[in-house]
Amino acid sequence: MTEQQNLPMITITLMGREHQVPAGLTIMTAIEHAGYKLVRGVGCRAGFCGACPTIFRKANDYKLYTALACQTLIEEGMNLVQIPFVPVSRKSYNLSEVEPSHNIVLRYYPEIARCVACNTCTRACPQNISVMDYIQAALRGDIARAAEISFDCIQCGICSTRCPADIKHYPVAQLVRRIYGTYILPRSSQLGKRVRELEKGLYQEEMATLTTMSLTDLRKLYEERTLEKVEFESKDQSALKELGTAQDPVDFQDDMQEYIEGVTN
Amino acid sequence: MQIAYYPGCTLKSSAQQYESSALAVLKALEIEPQEMKDWNCCGVVHALASDDIIHHVAPTRVFTQLQQQGSANVVTFCDMCYNSLAQANIFLKQEPQKCETINEFLESEHKYQGQIEILHLLPFLRDKVGFETLKKKVKHPLKGLRLFPYYGCKLLRPREIGIDDAEDPTILADLMHALGAEVIDDPLKIQCCGSHHVVDQQDIVVRQVEKIILRVQERGADAVVLSCPLCMFNFDSKQKQLLAPLPIFYFTQLICIALGLEKEALGLHYHRTNPLPLLQERQFLQVKQENML
Description:
A: Fumarate Reductase Iron-sulfur Protein, Chain B, domain 2, 4 domains, five-stranded mixed beta sheet, two-stranded antiparallel ribbon, B: alpha/beta, Glutathione S-transferase Yfyf (Class Pi), Chain A, domain 2, four-stranded parallel beta sheet
């Protein structure tokens, strides 16, 4: 609170009423600072759950902006409201009966054919996803591309509030990713083999050794592991390439460690 | 030669044999079409109403993307895409104010001002490659094959974007001559196939298709050659009541056969009227039927 007292106060408009709040707050914390208790339009507070879509305008700017309230800082003159919930009806389907074909998405969500390519959905997306590109990919039956583009979707539904064609985007993305995962993504034969081996009780000794190893030795063992190269869609995919990137679980753990150390020091 | 390629949805769905055969032909001619990354719908015919600005956004976005990737021209195979894109392009050139409105709405870095040249594959082959060049590459002339070239409407009208004479087009006939085929010419070559009526008034399409097929059959045609995926769908699927339906081909499939390109590119298993008996009888295909269908 001491920090906040040093920050200049700025004026924002919440649902038509002006409030003085300290600069540097997120939209979500500013709403709470102003005395509101959020019971809808709030979730993980970390930009992952997609529960806090918000719409706002800025001073002297004609545009209507969209964002996640927990991820966006307030600005002087901001005029905003929370969207408690975006109604996005989802079709029910039995995934074992939904096979990838060029018109499969149209069968469940025919309204995607109404897309006029205005790209408003893409501009509205707080995750910077090319929403329109995945709708267009789904429209032409390119399930793999649609699944790839939409991968980072957190289903906040902002795209669907802005669409002039009334498209419900994220259930489309959900459907294509489910079809992709069920029918297109290659299965690992080795994984099944290894699971069966584990079920038979093989590797008990190795497991016992691992559980007694020190963290440093474990890490060394992990980093020296050998990986098999996999050929998929003519791309050379290898877990080695992921080493040191955000996809590498160990390095992600490192980030967490650094973060925790930073906080505790 | 490299050229930007705009496929359109139909070539990825119901006209896959058109895409595979056209790409095989271009490869054989040492042309490398570069498919645009994340292209969107051409806008279909919605864009034809001039005051309907929002429906001009789709084609404009295609042009902006092309400009952004540094392409001065683009080739498309689909007649509908060609027609929609070419008409939208003219609209944007003639209506600079509306073009500006769309540019502002798109908020793209590159404002579009009508510089992209839109090409259909047929005039591309005629003007940029040359039918003579194509003729020199023919290994198996389509000798004795009597073809009725059917044009439909999207290639020819309106006149401003027409690739040939709107009343008496010859481009398909010229191409078929270059491949060594015989051509049956008939005024019905520019009659409507029934178009989108296939969705809710199929009898209109059946009437058109039967009229045209019976007439050209009487005049000795073995098959119909065309370039429009919608005409293909209508002709290929609406001959069920005829005793002797005629096979329908995309011109690119016939080029593939004449040039002796790989059979996989033909995509004959997508056809609804079986083209195999004709091709086998005339020995244009030396493959057993079960391998093709």
